[in-house]
Write a structure and sequence with these properties.
With about 100 residues, this protein is mostly helical. It has one domain. About 60% of the residues lie in helices and about 0% in strands. It has 5 helices and no strands. α1 crosses α2, α1 packs across α4 and α2 packs across α4.
Length: about 100
């Protein structure tokens, strides 16, 4: 019993802050462009200042999304067919820009 006579409430577990979808999408793009595994993408982002800059990550203020987060995101895109739609749209944009 607490000081006021009430039972102490269990402490809530600290939860990580939600990751911006744009951040995970950028991680997914890096994974595709460089043919990286989920773990390889995570490691490459820690190792490469250029990749962190592309993702908008400052290691002093934010964490790199982990490989499991990328795995779940990739499965979501694949299950819903969004990945194909996304890459088709990017391809059209690049073709329109003459690249």
């Amino acid at each position: 019993m607490g000081v006021s006579g009430c039972a102490a409430l269990p402490q809530r577990e600290a939860r990580p802050s939600p990751i911006e979808i744009e951040t995970v999408l950028r991680m997914y793009l890096l994974q595709c462009w460089f043919s990286l595994s989920d773990e390889g993408a995570e490691d490459a982002i820690y190792d490469s200042c250029t990749m962190r800059k592309f993702m908008g990550i400052n290691l002093f203020g934010q964490d790199v999304p982990d490989a499991t987060t990328l795995l779940h995101f990739r499965h979501l895109l694949e299950d819903k067919g969004i990945g194909r739609l996304f890459f088709d749209a990017v391809s059209r944009g690049l073709e329109g820009a003459g690249r």
